[in-house]
Amino acid sequence: MPTAIKPHRRRSQPVGMTYQFLPEVKKYTTKMAASGETMLKKPHVGKKRKPPTRYWEGTEENGKNDGKKQKEGDNNKQTPQQNKKRTKEGGKRGGAGEKILSGKSDPFPGSAPVPEEKLKKFKRGEKGELPPRPQYKLRDVVVRSEAASDLAQKQNARYDLMLPEDAGFLEGDEDEDTCTISQDDIADAVDITAGAKYFNLTLSQFGPYRLDYSKTGRHLLLGGRRGHVTCLDWQSKQLMCEMNVMETVNDVKWLHSEALFAVAQKKWLYIYDNKGIELHCIRKFNDVLRMQFLPYHFLLATASATGFLQYLDVSVGKEVVAICTKAGRLDVMAHNPHNAIIHLGHSNGTVTLWTPNQREPLVKMLCHQGGVRSVAVDKTGTYMVTSGMDKKLKVYDIRSYRPLQSYFLPAGASCLSLSQRGLLSAATGDIVQVYRDVWGTPVTKPYMAHRAKGSVWGVHFCPFEDVLGVGHGEGFTSMVVPGAGEPNFDGLDANPYRSAKQRQEWEVKALLEKIQPELIGLDPSQLSQVDHSTWEQRHEDRVQALGFDPLAKEKFTPRLKTKGRSSSGKVEKRKKQVAHEDQRDVIRQTVEDRMKIDKERKEKEKKEAAAAGQKSALDRFRK
Amino acid sequence: MKVKVLSRNPDDYVRETKLDIQRVPRNYDPSLHPFEVPREYTRALNATKLERVFAKPFLASLDGHRDGVNCMAKHPKSLSTMLSGSCDGELKVWNLTKRECVRTLQAHEGFVRGMVVRFCGTSFFTVGDDKTIKQWKMETPGYGEEEEPLNTILGKSVFTSIDHHQKEGVFVTCGQQVDIWDEQRSSPIRSFSWGVDSFSCVRFNPVETELLASCASDRSIVLYDMREATPLKKVIMNMRSNTLCWNPMEAYNFTCSNEDYNLYTYDMRYLDKPFTVHMDHVSAVLDVDYSPTGKEFVSASFDKTIRIFPKDSGHSREVYHTKRMQHVISIKWSSDNKYILSASDEMNIRLWKANAAEKLGLVRQTVLFLSFTSSVRTSSNLQVPGIKSNVMKERWISEQCRMLTINR
Fold first, then answer.
1. Compositional bias of type Basic and acidic residues: which residue ranges (chain A) (predicted)?
2. Which of A411, A614, B127, B305 could pair with B159 as two cysteines, CB 3.0-4.6 Å apart?
């Protein structure tokens, strides 16, 4: 009997959905507990409730009550909406009241709702207008692709609820500043593996040190000013190589994987492998002071003491471009991870933005009075933090190039670094301070602080870990900064636990997806926008392809006629005749157009007059 | 003090034993995946390039005819069998898997104009310039037996095309009029004409089996219902259509190949304007055939190329040509949707892949990775020699128009 089969099949779906729904229910209950004021308004002594016969009857009622009472609380705004939505969806599928096999109505009809803010996180761009109905084919294509992207967005948001890890945090007791909590206290309070992430390496001979973490956050590269270069797996403290290059080391940088790194030495740029074997000495890159690696483009950008900004394609080993910035010594550099644009800080207080495609800076911003000491850009490419010789720390919105906040640090910050979750570390002398949310409300106190043993030379947040690496005169300190790292990594992008095989696989895929340097620009999504070429442009292209203008007016050449009718006078006359005719056509056209416009205007006036002719009650007051 | 620090248990992220597959935790947060658009573009570009690298569409050439091949017919029951008729009246039956001719017979004097295999696959009909319709057995005659038609009908005028009903013993021919024949009779059971002197092609609808469509030499396409005495509808175009083919899946649509270098897809319910105009050929289109899925069709042209069009698209997705292939007269898409057969002037039948980059034969698992959308592909990426390219075509047309402009 078909009617018996149908409800049975329907039942299996909501059962599956309740599983997905569970974390959400949990979330609401925690939120309700948090908004304590509204809870207090409830009378202490209420009617005694009967215990619910089914567990969902109880929860649903609760949800409804809260929805009614706490309408003001924005936390619970969603609950009534969702209830409504759920019943609506249920109605579409044949009514919430539809009986299933056991005789009870389905308590959770339809699919589980997804919270709005989760959906917003995965939204890409605004929905465009649908093309008009006559273009039904295009309309169909647009509708289908939008439905597909909606589905993807929803699935992503659903998956987001199931991510395994939560971000770290640090909260002080009452009247206790988090910045007074020492690293030792934190290391004691957390579990033993996390506590082991706070450690010091005493390397007083060859300092001060610069450092770099690999993209997965597993490997650490240290470069001492006096030539000491070492790389290690910092979690297991396993040394991969250690050497002294017997030269000044200006900067060190991992390339795309932990197998290769670049060292900017006194004169040239060198590439080593993780056993410390020198692979290349690149003589085209001299006097390099700072380096940045663009992982998706396989480009190593270097800034030199001679004022050159150079790009090296590490996948083929060729110099892409060398730009003379004409701005003197370049020792402040950062890259925007969102659009791969290089930010350079200069001694006259400006910050310039560069791509390999343009010999002039894209943007030149005056940020400080006095020189710029350090620049950092956040992961989403929204904010830029700069510090200068004027002892100021400034935050800019680099979508609109507008200053957001300006802080005064008594000693000024020499190094800046931004973590994946937006913590800012600023080094002043031998003190490292970590600030939280510097672009929102003005911050008065640091989130954490730590005094290193020597003056700080480089700070770097470790990706996917709550760790800040500090290179200083006396070696290296690994600080624990709760809440710094992204808790959930993507296994296909940067997997700290990948095996050698997985790394090889990733490397091949990454190389296949290498983005060409020509595609670097301020807006990385520009490629997805429709290029509306104008009619003139298209016409120009057509003319170029054809070799002549197909729409150009044919020049009149009179035909040769016999019997004296092709005398020069006659020919002239014929030419004139044709020219007159053409002119008459043009005049006729313009007159017609003008008449049409006149007619339209008159009609409009007539209509307005008719509309005005209707008497209004207020007309009597008119003079 | 309350503190929590990220501390991952490696057991949650690495596989337990070597026999397990690797764990790959995902996080779809867009901020962890920068440059999605340029990366997707790069991927699509690579896929398209690889597809072009692997594009080797030409499979085989079947030679043996001693004159230009004029028509072909598919076997409804056997994928490996194909029939072809040439301009000297010779008919050949081919085995496509072995790529050899299995049977040759002299069917007509003069051209073999049309061929069709009966729906059961046991016999086939041919029409020729000698004003006859002949029915032949599909089986090869035994040793010592003579090649003789089962049946011969002598008509009044030359027949140009023939098609057979999908289910019944009825077939249709066209020439000076459209005739419907019963297999048992020697005179037509019905004749249609609509003030036209000759027809070039007639086709039964594969779904509404009583419907017919024909191309006439007065630039019109006429639709008929076999059960009625008069034709149904007529549409007159600017230039003559050579052949037409019904879409086997959406059988209310048909596509006709026109002399004005274009193909036109019509919905038979709304004949006032074509559904889609398929442009790309640079000379008259001579034949058209749909894929069995109804998603695409292939056209043969006087410009010595074959083009494959998606049914909705105004431009072709693929063009096949070789140095030696001359004017392509007849084209067929095989019933398994994998191959295309083209018959051309220079006595050859060519076998092509329908999907140029497809790997034939045993597919190993490692090869199955080309699943990206190739949004980057445009037909302008296809290389076409000489006058076959579109810019050249436009230039040529403009030159023609220029010459034709009236000198006042």
1. 61-75, 115-130, 578-609
2. B127
